[in-house]
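Morning, I've got a small favour to ask if you have a moment. You're getting the sequence in one-letter code plus the fold written as tokens. Thanks so much in advance, here it is:

===
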Amino acid sequence: VIDLGTTTPPETRRLAAAFADRGAALVDAPLSGGPGGAERIDLYVFVGGGAAAIAAARPYLETIGGAAKLTVCGPS
């Protein structure tokens, strides 16, 4: 599951643990760039999660912001 919202860190950690308990993974990926960035498909993406989940989500996230605007920040 990819969460593109601006979710608080405690809630993100809670969700990541809940997904993991069920054999799924959460990638949290809040966006920055505003409406103009969205219109231009030019958003910054800050990514948290496990390495395997991030690797699986990377093609989708790069579509939103491009490889140069994707910053991996560590675990959820």
Summary: DSSP finds three helices and five strands in the chain. The longest strand covers residues 44-48. The beta strands are 2-3, 27-28, 31-32, 44-48, 70-74. The mean pLDDT is 93.
